[in-house]
Amino acid sequence: MPETLEHSAAAGHRFDTVLIANRGEIAARIQRACRELGLKTVAICSEADREAPYGSTADSFLCIGPSSAAKSYLNQHAIILTARLAGAGAIHPGYGFLSENAAFADAVEKAGLVFIGPTASSIAIMGDKISAKRAMMAAGVPCVPGPDTALPDDPATIERIALEIGYPVIIKAAGGGGGRGMRVVPKADLLHEAIALTREEARKAFGSPSLYMEKFLEHPRHIEIQVICDDHGNALWLGHRDCSMQRRHQKVVEEAPAAGIAPDIIQPVGLACVKACLQIGYRGVGTFEFLYEDGAFYFIEMNTRLQVEHPVTEMTSGVDIVQAQIRVAQGHVLDLIQGDVTCEGHSFECRINAEDPESFLPSAGVVTHLALPAGPGIRVDTHIHAGYKVSPYYDSLIAKLIVHAPTRAEAMARMREALAGTEVEGISTNIPFLRALFEDGAFARGETDIHYLEQWLKLRRAA
Ligand code: ADP
Cα–Cα distance between 88 and 211 in angstroms, integer? Predict the structure, then answer.
């Protein structure tokens, strides 16, 4: 769309240089999007990442601290100072690290820089799972049965809440994340012990003992909705993804769209997400996560950042989510309307992790040989190359293998081919396990839920 006065960026948002406050594949992905938009980039690294390939393609590359993430990628002061010294006007936090840290978003804006993400107050509301649930209920988004308030201390009241919800229930830390701070309670006599343990864990890991309780759904699928909003009152949803293939609550394979869900069932949920965004004045990209069981959707949380699995939505919707995210941060009006969003075909993403395919223990070391697949409908998001040293300090994700094809069956076949053409030597990876998973009949038929992968692994081990 040509720029008009109305469509040009607001003066306060203008920037021509972006500091990318992250590492790995997502640092490379964001840098590409910036360059395509004509923006300059500042890459940062810890001492362990000095050789990162995206360093040499950035306009500046600065080491901001030691290998420990706490002293580098989580060092807010060092990152903001580096942005100012390097002349960056904006900071892109990527995912993980500081991406959902409201205090950081606030400090970035206070330093006169643009935080490429929502406002600090949106992050704070959604970062607390209780306030997020309350905001969603108010906007008419369907939630998991259970109160939208923190659990009291009084044992009798807690017992009453559990009985009202009905066992099994799940106790969750309001500040939890990364699959931690959750405990399932199958029956009443285990309730108080579970609460004491989760409270202690929450206090230690998330700095807040606040807990809440909801119904534990026994065989749901994990389905999420991608949204994008500008600063001018426009919000859109870009379709849905299924991320049910999880191990220890961590996603392993994602796909778009979620198979077998009729448009008239998902449509109202997508529209409710859009309405919720408008109600809370949300800006930027975000994901509403739901559990889906017996034809009904239940909101569990909102992620106020770019997701690892955003490529499957890019492949089906044709929207470059990272570019769109940067453009709305610049103050531009979204150049799409809901009616323009059409999702076509089917996409899968496999997370290639540097880990043992049997024990799942991280595997560090030098990649001695690398072959990546190519061809129609194949995309690889990675930062590694032959000779790259995988360090033990960070997340084990080394590449994302993404495919797109007209149908789900064709996309599965394409992923099998892509996995067959992927070779990583020198370190262990989960590729053998992904290859086996894409041969699985129940997965091919879409007969899976969030427990399927763990059960499949158990059966495989026993065989
Ligand atoms: P986190 O912020 O740690 O990722 P989520 O609330 O997104 O936590 O939940 C992570 C995963 O835990 C979900 O994808 C699902 O597998 C499981 N889970 C969460 N809440 C429930 C629930 N009420 N019933 C069943 N499983 C749940």
Answer: 39
